[in-house]
Amino acid sequence: MLRGLQRELLHDVDVSILLVFIFILELAAGISGYVLRNDTYNLVSNTLQSSMGKYGGNTSNEITYIWDEIQVDFDCCGVNNASDWGKTNDKLFNDTFLPMSCCRTTTGAIGTVRCMDPDHKETLRTTGCLNSFGSFIKAHAVSLGAAGIAIAVIQFFGVLFACYLSKQIKLQQGHTGF
After folding, report:
1. Which pTM was predicted?
2. Are 36 and 161 in contact (CB under 8 A)?
3. Which among 50, 68, 77, 131 could bridge 102 via Cys, Cβ 3.0 to 4.6 Å?
């Protein structure tokens, strides 16, 4: 059976090892985010294309919401352009109908809009979301990676300080050892 001080020392070592392990994981995540930033377009393209067929309907409200937000916020339509919506094999869209978020409309409009008509071309968002959204993600991937590394470094110094403080307290109490 371990005495109180020995148990306390083992606990301190266990906590230190756990914190160092978390530090290594955070550092690895930050580095991989920075290294993989060039694969952003492939990842965004695959994700956008695979989710287009799930737009609309009762079971994909989250996907519909996300697509609408991306298309409005980034002033884009489809993956490469608006014609991508006609390729989704979905009865909801064809060459004349698009999601409302592909069209620049007035607030409060409901349903689908014929913004591909020659009379309404100025209301159609023509840029594909891959370029605008992909550029946004790629630009911020470096920031996220840097933030992850900065947090990991701060945490590392926190672990070192905690170990030092624990040792100083034990020395003050007259205990020797770790």
Report:
1. 0.58
2. no
3. 77
